[in-house]
From TrEMBL:
Organism classification: Bacteria, Pseudomonadati, Pseudomonadota, Gammaproteobacteria, Oceanospirillales
Record's protein name: DUF2796 domain-containing protein
Record key words, sorted: Signal
Compositionally biased region (Basic and acidic residues): 112-125, 131-153
InterPro entries: ZrgA-like
Length: 209
């Protein structure tokens, strides 16, 4: 991620990956359908979060949008993910408000790249339309690449809390919005230490140390 404000969450992410690596989870194995990661770091009155999920959990596919409907699904998912106030429930006394949210996904980027590739391919076909065998090979390679793609949604949130000491509990509502999520591996870190959680649709609230 490119945001400057998530220095502490990057630290949390590092600790998260280290913790699960010891349990047999490797960082590159984190892309598992149904599973997601949530790293939370608290520094004073600021709470930063890093949410990472396979695109399959969010929109039901991981290739670039092929239709207008799929493109609309991705745009709708981005809007939902940006609404951090609806996805996370803080204690009212903590006075935590969403300061910023940034969503990144290869799906939209890949869609733009695909359009460029498509135009280049059309140009290529106009010049070498007689070479059908080469065209067929390129299309097969493209389809295989799509099938092997592992796109994700990665979101950064920043919350400002007027009474940070009252931030002792968090309700995660991601399960309600995105039915494809079955489990969220969560890591919380602050000056008090760190703690890991396994959240599910039935257990979506956790108490902080």
């Amino acid at each position: 991620m490119k945001s400057k404000y998530l220095v502490t969450a990057v630290l949390a992410s590092t600790l998260f990956n280290t913790t699960y690596a010891k349990e047999g989870h490797q960082q590159h194995d984190a892309h598992e359908h149904g599973h997601a990661q949530l790293n939370i770091a608290q520094e004073g009155s600021t709470v930063t979060m890093q949410f990472i999920s396979p695109a399959m959990n969010i929109v039901g596919f991981e290739h670039h949008p092929k239709t207008e409907e799929q493109e609309a699904q991705v745009k709708q998912a981005i809007k939902q993910l940006e609404n951090g106030s609806a996805l996370f429930g803080f204690p009212k006394k903590a006075g935590c408000k969403l300061a910023s949210a940034k969503v990144e996904t290869e799906l939209m980027e890949a869609h733009g790249d695909h359009d460029d590739d498509h135009h280049e391919k059309d140009h290529h076909e106009e010049k070498k339309h007689h070479d059908k065998a080469e065209k067929h090979h390129e299309e097969e390679h493209h389809d295989e690449h799509e099938e092997e793609s592992h796109s994700e949604f990665e979101v950064e949130y920043s919350f400002n809390c007027s009474q940070p000491k009252q931030f002792h509990q968090l309700q995660v509502r991601l399960f309600e919005t995105f039915k494809g999520i079955e489990e969220i591996r969560t890591q919380y870190i602050s000056d008090k230490g760190q703690q890991g959680f396994e959240l599910t649709p039935k257990v979506s609230v956790f108490n902080l140390p």
